[in-house]
Amino acid sequence: MALPRESRDLDATIMPVGHVQPGMSLVFDKGLGRQLFQVEKVGFSSKRQDDGSYLNTYTLTSGPTADGSPPWVVELPAGAMVCRILGYSAA
Known about the structure:
By secondary structure, this protein is an all-beta fold. The chain has strands spanning 7-16, 25-29, 34-48, 54-62, 73-77, 81-90.
């Protein structure tokens, strides 16, 4: 879901992905403009690597999309920072 075009000022904060909880609104920009991501589910996995270290990953799943397409899924390494939307105002 795209943020409204008229939204100019985001009230947002940067936070570690490990602090994300269901119900939070995040914003991502992967080259298509700012996209709203409403978190419905947060998952965590830890996989042991060949060198004995662990790769910790968070999986964020969005809520239902407006057009009925499958929920978005974003995988991020532990320690990654995300942008949480607290609110926004129109121009």
